[in-house]
Design goal:
There is one protein chain. By secondary structure, the protein is mostly beta strands. The chain is built from 24 helices and 69 strands. Helix content is 12%, strand content 38%. Strands 19, 20, 21, 25, 26 and 28 form a six-stranded antiparallel β-sheet that branches. It is flat and about 140 Å long.
């Protein structure tokens, strides 16, 4: 299983439609692979429901096949208190689709919400989703919230906004469908046949079929206990493009009444392929597992095993239909299917003869052959008692046969005679189309004296791979390798094989008069296995803290096996041909035998016993024969790297380089059939016809800058030190080239033998001279692994002569080994150096250009650049690994022979080409009508014009800050995804030539330094880093080399102008070096004095360097699901500078925004190690703050980089991955940052780059409700009008509540109302994700107000504009229409209102009270008298108030007088007055 990361952010829901159309309490449920997340529940929403919630699932375990059909599903519900929640709609995204997109995400995508029972869009959901494979970079926070299409539209329509009309901000309550085209996905399920019985059910199954796509699931009717059933149903699913998934899932089920339904089979289809090409009626054969053999635990432990039981077949057709503009989509449903012409069927007879079964340990065995549901078996056969005795087999030459040291494999051999091995013919009806035909299943059964029959192995073969039957001409038998049933045998159990002959015919008469099987006889053959080497060895239980274990390769075939000697090392080299004397069956010595599968087993030598690591099965049957001229056909070694699989999950545990040769045993001593020489031959001894490849002379230049982060190591001398570990003090670095050379040969020249033994040894402190001074060493804190480490400065250079094979299959490499030398006292006591670690550097990228075929030193470099690039890529591909061994075809063998024969006659530099490729023969006339004889070697090559490739991948830029919109042409800082040190293209092409190489133990070459991990966080695996650089030059420098090549190339050209001669020397220097070798590196790296000056001269490295670190944002993959961190930054520069920002932690967020600039003065190189760690504030009871992840930056590389220096003021923003030593190899998030450096003396004159956090501006929103008009009558002929507002903004922090209401205008009979009421919402913090205002109209009553209608206003754009320019904004007064909740088209009134948006400082200087309170200014609001008097109020209760005319103004005074007199009398009575 693999671990995947799924993260998402839910922004908002729009236009959510409930069952009654009224506002609801919505929430979202997200489901993905048994993970569930639920948002908070909002109240009274329908037009806009802003959630703005994020979640990350950092560890979802799935198989790769499971990942291809997995989805993340969003379900929006409306909460009901006492009944089931109402599902508004669902939307889904396919995980593999998301992962294949740029940056692995969909950003701010609007998804249509639909229900299964309707095609109507029930709302829209705005989300961001990203899916990461192991080691992939998480998209930064800016990418996750960016919406390029929305930004472009906003910028384009910026001048068209009607900012003086509030009606333009009204959010639509109806559905606005996204642009797309409607389609129907129609899958016709015609019928099922040959359904097998469900093992744990009585009788045949009760089948039905389901189809899932686009959030819809449709099912057919159900058959009742049938083995075949006709459906003739069309499962119709509505689809509107664009779609965010492609996999159509079809499942065949068995209906169970008393328990859950049983899944019989599952198939996947591609929607895009169905859309392009309709699917004609086609039979799909269904395969699964038998519950008696494989249970769920076995399937999980075996890692997605191969289905091995025929379950039936289903006839399906389908297509995708595009609808017209006037057509309306219908819900997903099942409808009757149209009649179609079924695939043509034919009757076949399959004839099978079993000859032999090998590799089985049982008393008896039996072979079953099946085709679909038709099957027949052989008779039971016991194992042979003398089948492995080769002495009983005639080799054909009459001489005594020897065993050659072969060993016997554990499996027995079972021989079937014609009677026991003949399988009765299989009469089948099958489609004529081979794609619709089932597999030919070969099943192997065994039984013992006590144990009953049991199937242990199987094979699935295509019928078209077998020949047709010819009367009197039986087919030739062949071996078929079988695959073990999961759970059978141990991990070391070898796979059996069966020798059989299968043929088929349409003529049943011929089948009935079946002839005898072909007579084959056993013959003795010799199988040569050329075992070269192994690489990338990584199995469970391998020890990395000790030198590599001794490993060998075992080759098994036909019951015999041979082992290589066991060799040690991370890259095991055997270079040993093994000869197996095997017995194979054939009908003629001039025909290829029926070759048994060859089993390769990588084994390790333990202290007591050996153990198997991994296996691979190879098939090779090419027999060495004589041609028509009675000469042996040529044989050329063509080794291949193949994978070996092992372990519980069957993963790749190693790769081996192997080649095979097969010949008759009696011919093995002939000179032409002697084993090929596997070793590369030195130049004087190389013969193309005899040797596999040659050795090339080269000079390796090494530049060693130093060692970094050397971990403490145990020393026997340091008894009594704390923990038994001390820091390294006297390290030495040994550099040598590990090449594939046979040093034991006596024919090698002494000079060449000496070159093989050359190595460079650098001791710390050896380069110290009065001129260059002492070398430094210092301590540093490696917080990534929690240790204090040592660093050493070497500043050394050297060169040595090396021999490199010209075959890329060998993959020569540079071995850099770092040892700690014992002290003088320890050395006198016999202590040996302690190995710290080693690193292997592959040579493919360092190969000189002139080693490539077709490259000449006499031609200009630029003219040969395309050829060099082509050959380099071909050379790298030639060393790539394959899943299994592939035998060369006759055409490939012929082309290889012709190429090698041609190379024998070629002279000059092409003779020993590193890699050659086969091209088609050039025509006699070229495109310029030049005959071939006139253009060979006579024309100068034309300059090649390189075409500029269009880069379709747009680099993600740093998004503009919230509240502002970037302008076109603005000089924004460039940004890139990933670390700067691994970037090789614009906007920053790195030239960090001394990147640290990890020092490990018992590890192979690192093919990709930035594959899936950061080596600084591999505690216990990495023991330090070495900083060095290399240059590989053709030839041995200082050796007088005789010019090779044709005479015309070796002849000196006289009277050449100096400029041309200099250009030619420059081109030759480039051609003799590695491709794209930087000339600026050559100026200082390989000269110790220049190297010392570069890194120690005060003009190059000031005494103090100012480091400015800019931290923008981060994405933290922390916890599980809804768990949030309290992230903060922790910085370490070297050992002494530690910066903790714990007091500035960002609470409860996984996407913190730091916007922090830190400056520190450092000393180079002692404090050049910058480690940035993102931590989370721990609880009060935790001992330390939990680490989310970190990253390490080498500032020394950046300071000395030319590209860095030239762009110091425009360094790109990096999105650096975060890693943790607690979870090695897992991506823990990313951080956006960049670093600038300059001389501390000049720092005061150079200001730091601007990194401004989005301003935390505060906005005040003021609304003035002037009145209403056109209000519907709610109580007969009048309405008590009241207006309420609800601000929906999470960033609102004012003292007034979110809901605010006006007073009541009573007894409005004409639908008009006057309020003059002010709503105030102060202190809205910017930026804001969403800011909407819900305005509702109510009819006021004593018991409960009656809702009339509402409207939503989107005020975000006004807030952002004021935040951007700080200018107050006044909109209105305008009439805003209020719509009915039951009918979106029914206007129930309008509200006249105006809006004031001010910055908070301006609002504080011009204060305004809520309602009509003081200060009542800007504008001044006067309390209206309409609808507020007692008469109007009492009229709402049915009381008539008499009209007193002008006297009614005295009524309050009279009432006050009466109350005063009553109070005076009362107080008099109680004695208080």
């Amino acid at each position: 299983m693999q671990e995947y990361v799924v993260g998402f952010r839910i922004f908002e829901g729009r236009s959510l439609q409930t069952e009654d159309g009224s506002p609801c309490d919505p929430f979202v449920v997200v489901e993905c692979c048994d993970n569930v997340y639920q948002t908070e529940t909002l109240t009274e929403r329908n037009s806009l429901a802003p959630w703005n919630e994020t979640c990350i699932w950092p560890k979802i375990e799935m198989y790769p096949k499971e990942f291809e059909s997995s989805f993340i599903e969003f379900k929006v519900y409306a909460r009901h208190w006492f009944t089931r929640n109402y599902l508004i709609g669902t939307a889904s995204l396919q995980l593999s689709f998301i992962n294949r997109r740029q940056n692995h995400l969909y950003a701010r995508r609007l998804l249509n919400l639909r229900r299964e029972d309707s095609t109507a869009i029930m709302g829209m959901l705005c989300v961001t989703v990203y899916v990461l494979l192991p080691g992939e970079l998480a998209p930064n926070a800016s990418l996750q919230v960016s919406d390029e299409s929305a930004d472009a539209d906003a910028e384009e329509n910026e001048d068209k906004e009607e900012e003086d009309n509030l009606q333009s901000t009204v959010l639509q309550t109806g559905i606005v469908a996204l642009p797309g085209k409607p389609h129907y996905l129609r899958l016709n399920i015609h019928r099922v046949e040959d359904l097998q019985d469900v093992s744990y059910s009585v009788g045949p199954p009760s089948p039905y079929v389901t189809v899932e796509f686009g959030g819809c699931l449709v099912k057919t009717s159900t058959g009742k206990n049938v083995s075949q059933h006709t459906f003739n149903e069309c499962l119709q699913i509505p689809v509107t493009t664009p779609v965010y998934e492609d996999t159509v899932i079809m499942k065949l089920w068995h209906y169970s009444w008393m328990s859950s339904d049983v899944l019989l089979a599952q198939g996947l289809m591609s929607f895009s392929e169905l859309r392009s090409n309709s699917l004609p009626p086609k039979w799909f054969n269904l395969y699964g597992w038998s519950s008696d053999e494989v249970n769920d635990d076995t399937i999980i432990n075996s890692g997605d095993p191969e289905p091995n039981v025929f379950r039936g077949r289903v006839l399906i057709s389908g297509h995708v239909e595009r609808l017209g503009q006037d057509d309306e989509l219908q819900p997903a449903k099942s409808v009757p299917a149209r009649s179609v012409a079924e695939p043509q069927m034919t009757q076949l007879s399959i004839l099978t003869d079993i000859y032999m079964v090998a590799g089985v340990d049982a008393r008896q065995c039996q072979v079953e052959v099946s085709f679909g549901s038709v099957k027949n078996v052989t008779k039971w056969v016991s194992y042979d008692t003398d089948s492995n005795s080769h002495d009983a087999v005639d080799s054909g030459d009459g001489e005594e046969q020897k065993t050659y040291g072969d060993e016997r494999t554990g499996g027995q051999t079972y021989t079937f005679n014609e009677k026991n091995g003949r399988v009765e013919q299989l009469l089948v009806m099958t489609p004529e189309n081979p794609e619709c035909q089932p597999f030919v299943m070969i099943n192997l059964y065994v039984q013992g004296r006590v144990q009953g029959p049991r199937r242990i192995a199987f094979a699935k073969c295509n019928l078209e791979d077998f020949p047709t039957y010819g009367p009197g001409d039986p087919s030739k038998p062949r071996f078929v390798p079988l695959e073990l049933i999961p759970g059978y045998g141990s991990g070391s159990q070898a796979s059996p094989s069966v020798l059989l002959a299968i043929s088929w015919t349409k003529d049943l008469k011929e089948a009935r008069s079946r002839s005898a099987r072909k007579v084959v006889k056993p013959m003795v053959y010799v199988l040569r296995a050329y075992c070269f080497m192994a690489r990338n060895i990584n199995y469970k239980g391998i020890r990395r803290d000790v030198p590599g274990e001794h490993l060998g390769l075992k080759v098994s075939c036909a019951g015999m096996a041979q082992r290589t000697r066991a060799e040690q090392g991370p890259r095991v080299r055997w270079m040993q041909p093994l000869e197996l004397r095997i017995v194979l069956s054939s009908d003629s010595r001039n025909e290829e035998p029926a070759s048994e599968p060859i089993l390769l087993t990588l084994w390790g030598g333990g202290a007591v016993t050996n153990f198997d690591i991994g296996k691979a099965v190879c098939v090779y049957s090419k027999l060495r024969l004589k041609n028509a001229r009675a000469k042996w056909e040529p044989y050329h070694l063509m080794p291949q790297w193949i994978k070996l699989f092992g372990g519980p999950s069957g993963s790749c545990v190693a790769e081996v380089l192997i080649a095979f040769e097969l010949l008759l045993a009696k011919h093995r001593h002939e000179p032409a059939l002697e084993p090929k020489d596997m070793w590369p031959a030195p130049p004087p001894l190389f013969e193309k016809a005899k040797h596999f490849c040659s050795l090339r002379k080269a000079t390796l230049h090494v530049s060693l800058l130093g060692l970094r982060d050397i971990c403490p190591l145990p020393r026997l001398e340091s008894i009594g030190s704390a923990g038994g570990k001390v820091h390294a003090a006297h390290p030495s670095v040994t550099v040598r080239v590990v090449s594939v050379v046979n040093a034991d040969t006596d024919e090698m020249d002494p000079a060449l033998r000496k070159a093989l033994e050359e190595k460079l040894i650098f001791h710390f402190g050896d380069g110290a001279t009065p001129e260059m001074g002492e070398r430094h060493h210092w301590l540093s804190n490696a917080g990534s692994i929690g240790q204090e480490c040592t660093n050493f400065e070497f500043l050394s250079a050297g060169k040595m002569r090396v021999l490199v094979p010209d075959a890329m299959e060998f993959q020569p490499y540079i071995l850099i080994q770092v040892d700690e030398q014992p002290s003088s006292i320890g050395a006198s006591l016999g202590y040996t150096p302690t190995t710290i670690g080693e690193t292997l550097v592959g040579l493919p990228h360092l190969l000189p250009c002139c080693w490539l075929e077709g490259v000449s030193l006499q031609e200009p470099f630029e003219e040969q650049r395309p050829l060099i690039e082509k050959n380099l890529q071909a050379a790298i591909r030639n060393a790539q690994v394959r899943d299994k061994f592939r035998s060369a075809t006759e055409l490939e063998l012929k082309m290889e022979s012709e190429r090698r024969q041609t190379n024998l006659d070629v002279v000059g530099e092409k003779r020993n080409a590193l890699f050659s490729y086969n091209e088609e023969e050039a025509p006699f006339l070229d495109d310029q009508a030049m005959p071939k004889p006139l253009r060979l070697g006579q024309r100068r090559p034309q300059p090649h014009q390189l075409s500029t490739k269009l880069n379709m991948q747009r680099e993600a830029s740093f998004s503009p800050r919230e509240g502002s919109r970037g302008t076109k042409g603005s000089g924004a800082r460039p940004s890139l995804n990933g670390e700067l040190e691994y970037h090789t293209s614009k906007p920053f092409k790195q030239d960090f030539w001394y990147r640290g190489l990890p020092l490990r133990r018992n590890h192979d070459i690192i093919d990709d330094m930035h594959s899936t991990k950061d080596w600084h966080f591999q505690a216990g695996e990495v023991f330090g880093f070495v900083k060095c650089s290399f240059k590989l030059v053709d030839g041995w420098e200082g050796e007088d080399k005789v010019a090779e090549g044709p005479d015309d190339e070796a002849t000196a050209i006289e009277d050449v102008p100096p400029s041309i001669d200099e250009a030619r020397e420059s081109d030759q220097a480039k051609l003799k070096c590695s491709y794209n070798f930087d000339a600026s590196l050559d100026k200082f790296a390989f000269d110790e004095k220049e190297l010392y000056r570069k890194y120690r001269d005060p003009d190059e490295v000031p005494a103090r360097i100012r480091v400015r670190m800019y931290f923008v944002k981060a994405v933290c993959m922390f916890g599980n699901g809804s768990e949030f961190a309290d992230p903060f930054l922790h910085l370490e520069l070297g050992k002494d500078i530690v910066v903790s920002m714990r007091n500035m932690a960002k609470p409860q967020t996984n996407t913190p925004e730091f916007y922090r600039v830190e400056e520190r003065d450092i000393k180079m190189p002692e404090q050049a190690r910058l480690e940035v760690t993102v931590k989370s504030v721990g609880s009060d009871f935790s001992l330390a703050d939990p680490v989310i992840g970190g990253t390490v930056i080498d500032l020394e590389d950046r300071w000395h980089s030319t590209t860095w220096t030239n762009s110091v003021r425009n360094i790109p923003v990096e999105s650096r991955s975060l890693y943790s030593s607690e979870h090695p190899g897992r991506n823990c998030g990313c951080i956006q940052m960049w670093v600038e450096m300059l001389d501390s003396a000049e720092a005061a004159d150079t200001k730091a780059s601007l990194l401004a956090e989005p301003p935390q501006a505060e906005i005040e929103l003021r609304l003035v409700i002037w009145g209403a008009s056109g209000v519907s009558m709610m109580a007969g002929d009048y309405t008590n009008v009241m207006v309420t507002t609800m601000l929906d903004c999470k960033e609102y922090g004012g003292e007034y509540g979110n809901p605010q209401s006006t007073d009541v205008h009573y007894n409005s009979k004409d639908g008009k109302a006057i309020f003059n009421w002010r709503m105030v919402y102060p202190r809205i913090k910017m930026p804001t994700w969403s800011c909407t205002l819900l305005i509702s109209l109510y009819h006021h009553e004593l018991v409960q107000d009656t809702f009339i209608g509402n409207v939503n206003l989107d005020l975000k754009k006004y807030m952002e504009k004021v935040s951007r320019n700080s200018d107050a904004l006044i909109v209105g007064p305008n009439d805003v229409k209020i719509m009915s909740s039951s009918d979106a088209q029914d206007c129930v009134g309008s509200i006249n209102m105006s809006m004031h948006v001010l910055s908070q400082p301006e609002a504080d200087s011009k204060r305004a009270g809520i309602a009509r309170e003081e200060p009542n200014e800007d504008p001044q609001l006067i309390c209206p008298i309409e609808g507020r008097d007692w008469g109007t109020y009492l009229e709402t209760f049915g009381f008539a108030w008499p009209d007193f005319g002008l006297w009614k103004k005295l009524i309050p005074l009279l009432l006050a007088g009466v109350v005063f007199l009553f109070t005076a009398v009362l107080m008099r009575q109680v004695g208080l007055f």
